[in-house]
């Protein structure tokens, strides 16, 4: 009954967080959130007093001629590739430290969950201010601002996948590494990284979908008097919007489809097949994987094969360097008294940092914001919350029945999963101009018809997980339902819905986070000289960023993050835990 299963479309944090009880973990996360806010305030003070006033970079002349699109597409692709490489390096460092250090994990693991909840588009105004202040008048600063924002949309997902892989390495493999006397450096490259490769490839594919959305949005951005238009597909669409050129928008959509297909064929399909060699267990998907043409080309072309062989040989020598300590050379274990003393000092230091962060945040908030302003932003948050929840409900009503129908047929499910993955990789904000032009020309109500833009990209998380959950549903239970002639509403209520609920909630959790991020781009959109805007937290953050009011943007981003975390902690996670305890079948 199972179809070939594609990568799990769930960018949420996976695996054990810590050994603390859930209630204590919530306290830790709230404390870390306060510390993060305090660090942001101190960083803002430092930037204002040490860096130059952000100066716009020298503008490159943009053209709507379709002949320039290949060059713009190549530049956009290069930015994504650099951001992906930085995310990979960050994952190696962060996940390894969190997995190998007990004390570091107490901070880094819950902090990762918080960072994953911060909408990536909210970082844009701050990265622009920082890097253009660091490199005033240089396009290099603008490039760094865009790439770092895309990095923030990808790194947390990839890191969480690698951390989970490092924490679940089988004990017998750890023992084998010790028996062979591998140093910590050799063990990292010969055991830790190979075990993490499947998760890294899967999560890189997942994070790429959100990364394209952020990248296209970021290539054209205004922060106060600073306006950036880096040559790329995003800036091309921005110019097409200002000139109300539908043809140019359609050309950009086709170019983006070409870029995504190129990434899939040249990078991710070969990586997926290659990563399957490192799986600790054989899956049905591995059995049906066919060698992609890119791998055949690398193997059969002598020049390319020679280059790859030299690269692999260099990496093998690098991984074999006798760096780090060997097993048995670790420091003697601490006594109970010294362990308690060091833990007490550690917790005391964390407490002092937390109290200092509370003082910084309270002092800044009392001077920068009024109670009325904070209340206004919170109310705007409820407007956006209403849109997100309503769209999640509408998408569920549409896609759950259709996803079940697709998932019940293995061949149909496999084809549908491939199509859904392709749709999810496409940045939905490239379609916004078509919807906005329709709203304007047909004289529709923006407050109603801008809302579906939140789910253009997020809906695919729901449909993918519903198809995957249905395709994985035990065949014997379906046969039992047929034997007892369970049909109609009773079949939905007693058999299929309980069985797919865990997978469905995984998709809803991912779709919710994606919708909040999309709200920053979807609640205030432009067509020519006309701007459509609805009341909401996303529009507030976008307007504050455009006005250069980073203090207001920070308030909006903080409130949006609190809404996302509250939804995760109070609604989605408890429901997911209940579903996996009571309803999970396999």
Can I get a quick summary?
With 586 residues, the chain is an all-alpha fold. It has helices at 22-50, 69-100, 102-117, 124-134, 139-167, 171-179, 184-218, 233-242, 246-275, 284-288, 293-300, 302-319, 336-368, 371-407, 410-425, 432-442, 446-449, 455-471, 475-483, 488-522, 537-547, 550-582; strands at 220-223, 226-229, 524-527, 530-533. The strands form two sheets. The chain has a two-stranded antiparallel sheet. It has a two-stranded antiparallel ribbon with strand order 3-4.
Keywords:
MetI-like fold, globular, 586 residues, mainly alpha, two-stranded antiparallel ribbon, 2 domains, 3% strand, 75% helix, two-stranded antiparallel sheet, 4 strands, disordered N terminus
């Amino acid at each position: 009954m199972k179809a070939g299963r594609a990568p799990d479309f769930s960018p949420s944090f996976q695996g054990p967080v810590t050994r603390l009880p859930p209630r204590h973990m919530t306290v830790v996360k709230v404390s870390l959130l306060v510390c993060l806010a305090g660090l942001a305030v101190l960083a803002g003070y430092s930037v204002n007093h040490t860096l130059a006033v952000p100066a716009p970079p020298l503008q490159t002349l943009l053209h709507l001629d379709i002949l320039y699109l290949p060059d713009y597409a190549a530049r956009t692709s290069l930015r994504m590739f650099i951001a992906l490489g930085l995310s990979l390096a960050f994952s190696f460092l962060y996940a390894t430290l969190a997995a190998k250090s007990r004390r570091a994990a107490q901070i880094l693991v819950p902090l990762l969950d918080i960072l994953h909840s911060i909408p990536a588009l909210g970082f844009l105004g701050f990265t622009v201010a920082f890097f253009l202040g660091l490199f005033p008048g240089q396009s290099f600063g603008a490039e760094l601002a865009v790439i770092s924002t895309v990095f923030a949309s990808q790194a947390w997902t990839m890191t969480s996948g690698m951390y989970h892989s490092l924490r679940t390495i089988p004990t017998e493999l750890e023992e084998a590494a010790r028996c062979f006397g591998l140093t910590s450096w050799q063990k990292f490259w010969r055991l830790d990284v190979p075990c993490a490769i499947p998760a890294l490839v899967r999560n890189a594919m997942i994070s790429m979908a959100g990364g394209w959305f952020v990248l296209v949005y970021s290539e054209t951005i205004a922060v106060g008097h600073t306006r950036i238009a880096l040559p790329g597909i995003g800036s091309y669409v921005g110019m097409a919007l200002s000139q109300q050129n539908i043809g140019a928008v359609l050309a950009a959509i086709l170019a983006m489809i070409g870029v995504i297909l190129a990434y899939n064929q040249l990078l991710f399909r070969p990586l997926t097949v290659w990563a399957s060699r490192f799986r600790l267990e054989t899956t049905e998907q591995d059995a049906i994987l066919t060698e992609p043409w890119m791998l055949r080309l690398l193997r059969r072309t002598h020049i390319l094969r020679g280059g790859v062989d030299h690269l692999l040989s260099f990496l093998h020598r690098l991984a074999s360097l006798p760096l780090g300590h060997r097993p048995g050379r670790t420091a003697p274990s601490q006594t109970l008294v010294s362990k308690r003393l060091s833990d007490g000092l550690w917790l005391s230091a964390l407490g002092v940092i937390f109290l200092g962060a509370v003082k910084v945040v309270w002092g800044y908030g009392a001077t920068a914001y009024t109670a009325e302003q904070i209340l206004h932003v919170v109310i705007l948050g409820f407007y956006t919350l209403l849109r997100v929840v309503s769209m999640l409900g509408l998408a569920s009503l549409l896609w759950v029945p259709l996803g079940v129908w697709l998932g019940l047929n293995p061949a149909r499910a496999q084809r549908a999963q491939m199509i859904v993955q392709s749709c999810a990789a496409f940045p939905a904000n490239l379609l916004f101009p078509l919807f906005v032009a329709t709203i304007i020309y047909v004289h529709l109500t923006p407050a109603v018809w801008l809302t579906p833009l939140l789910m253009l990209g997020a809906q695919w998380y729901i449909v993918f997980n519903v198809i995957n959950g249905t395709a994985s549903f035990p065949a014997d239970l379906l046969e039992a339902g047929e034997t007892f002639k369970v049909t109609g509403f009773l079949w939905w209520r007693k058999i299929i819905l309980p069985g797919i609920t865990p997978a469905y909630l995984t998709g809803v959790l991912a779709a919710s986070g994606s919708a909040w991020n999309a709200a920053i781009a979807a609640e205030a959109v432009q067509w020519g000289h006309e701007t459509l805007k609805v009341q909401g937290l996303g529009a507030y953050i976008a307007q504050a960023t455009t006005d250069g009011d980073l203090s207001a943007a920070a308030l909006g981003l903080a409130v949006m993050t609190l809404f996302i975390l509250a939804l995760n902690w109070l609604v989605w996670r408890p429901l997911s835990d209940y579903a996996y305890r009571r309803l999970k079948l396999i």
